[in-house]
Write a structure and sequence with these properties.
Layout lengths: L1 E6 L12 H15 L3 E5 L18 H4 L2 H4 L3 H19 L5 E5 L4 H9 L3 E5 L5 H9 L8 E3 L15 E3 L31 E4 L8 H11 L3 E4 L5 H8 L7 E3 L5 H9 L4 E3 L9 H8 L4 E4 L4 H5 L3 E4 L4 H9 L8 H9 L2 H25 L1
Parallel strand pairs: 1-2, 1-3, 3-4, 4-5, 5-6, 7-8, 8-9, 10-11, 11-12
Protein name: Glycosyltransferase subfamily 4-like N-terminal domain-containing protein
GO molecular function: glycosyltransferase activity
Pfam families: Glyco_trans_1_4 (PF13692), Glyco_transf_4 (PF13439)
């Protein structure tokens, strides 16, 4: 198939990835290519592999109209509309079999109906405002199927559309691999200490609960490394930085092999959202490295982690500290087997391919009737 993948334009799709949506777009394009498809990514300028013809806008909108300052304004809406209108015209002229929409821009869903274009929309966040309304306008339309990233998202739709399906995000399990020099979870390291520090990875912002992870590390008396983009500098300065010391370190915004190595050597990955995570990509990445996960019970994390870690009551810093004092001990290979079975690129692409084909069949049916 020839597939146009349209990405969110808040950030460029390039490493180090600012967040899960950008990492997902990169993994999606890689997975489609590995499956033999011809996929073109339409994304903000500066995105990896995106030439000028497929750059939706010269610069990501976060560089021009930062979301925290311009959220809900006419200026930000107009910036996005102009960018996505250009992208849509390029898609219409590109001879694609199907479009995969990974944006938060609602009009694309309506444009697909107007122009008879088969398009799968993947919802990477909980339903909100205009995007929710656009998905509901497409309810039941086989031309415009919708996916959510976890079963935990379905109850958030009081009127679940008949064309809504669950397809878990996938990761490249060939890149996210166990460390060959890391002691097994049920064996002590050569120095008699448990392997590696705990690891926290993600956007440093209040809704990711970074400070709560550090508070728990202090109470438990354990080492922890943090990595990720500092999205909210005032939050970092006020609540995160004062908790850093020789044993609780910020190691930077890591990319590629450095991030994978840090994850693979962790004693466990710690995930502390202060909102209902629609998926939790970092948890799946850790499982693929055969690393257990200790997480707050928010959103999809229980669904992703399964038996391969410890789930703590949401926001319970003392409970998190207790879990850090006694990390889970899993049989070697248990976490990775779960990732390979449920969260691999092949599993994700297989789910998407089924929906691509059904949308394409609906488009053919419309043309036959016309």
């Amino acid at each position: 198939m020839r597939i146009a993948v349209i990405g969110h334009i808040r950030f460029a799709v390039t490493e180090p990835f600012p967040g899960g949506m950008e990492a997902h777009c990169a993994s999606l394009c890689r997975g489609l290519a590995l499956a033999g498809h011809d996929a073109d990514l339409y994304a903000a300028g500066g995105s990896h592999g995106v030439d000028n013809d497929r750059a939706i806008c010269e610069r990501p909108y976060e560089d021009v109209l930062p979301w925290a300052e311009w959220r809900g304004t006419v200026q930000l809406e107009d910036y996005q509309r102009s960018a996505f209108e250009r992208a849509w015209q390029a898609v219409l002229q590109g001879g694609y079999d199907v479009v995969h929409n990974n944006t938060l821009f609602p009009d694309l869903i309506d444009w697909a109906a107007r122009d008879g274009v088969p398009m799968l929309t993947s919802q990477h966040v909980p339903p909100f405002g205009k995007m929710r309304e656009a998905v509901l306008r497409a309810a039941g339309d086989p031309l415009r199927p919708v996916t959510v990233t976890s079963a935990s998202q379905l109850p958030l739709w009081s009127e679940r559309p008949a064309n809504m399906h669950v397809v878990h995000n996938g990761i490249d399990t060939e890149l996210w691999r166990p460390a060959t020099d890391r002691p097994a979870a049920d064996r002590p390291a050569t120095d008699g200490q448990a392997q590696g520090p705990y690891f926290w990875s993600g956007r440093i912002t209040p809704n990711k609960g970074t400070a709560m992870a550090l508070q728990a590390a202090h109470r438990a008396g354990v080492a922890m490394d943090l990595a990720g983009t500092i999205e909210d500098e005032s939050y970092y300065a006020r609540e995160v930085e004062p908790l850093l010391d020789a044993r609780r370190r910020y190691v930077g915004h890591l990319s590629g092999e450095r991030l994978r190595r840090q994850t693979a050597h962790a004693r466990a990955l710690v995930v502390t959202p202060a909102w209902d995570e629609p998926f939790g990509l970092v948890a799946a990445e850790a499982l693929s490295c055969d690393v257990p996960v200790i997480a707050f019970d928010r959103g999809a994390l229980r669904e992703v982690v399964g038996p391969c870690g410890v789930i703590v009551a949401a926001g319970d810093v003392d409970g998190l500290a207790a879990a850090l004092r006694a990390p889970p001990s899993l049989a070697t290979g248990m976490a990775r087997a779960r990732a390979e079975r449920k969260f691999s690129l092949a599993a994700m692409i297989g789910g998407y391919e089924t929906l691509y084909r059904s949308a394409m069949a609906a488009a053919r049916g419309m043309k036959a009737v016309a």
